[in-house]
Amino acid sequence: MPELPSSKDIERMRKMYPAGTKIRLNHMDDPFSPVPPGTIGEVTMVDDGGNIHMKWQNGRTLPLIEEADDFTVI
Fold first, then answer.
1. Domain coverage including residue 57
2. Is the pTM of this model over 0.85?
């Protein structure tokens, strides 16, 4: 089981990805139901586990994981 981010890491992520931040997905590491590359979304929150919750333009809400997924802030 992966180690949870420290409270310092969570604080950094919340500053780096505040609600409303626009992100373009390059690649999602989800073999079952990934969001397609190139999809743009908006951050809704960063939770205490370090998941970046998203509202994608295609209606999906799958969160990003900073260490696993490849994305660009736009």
1. 7-73
2. yes
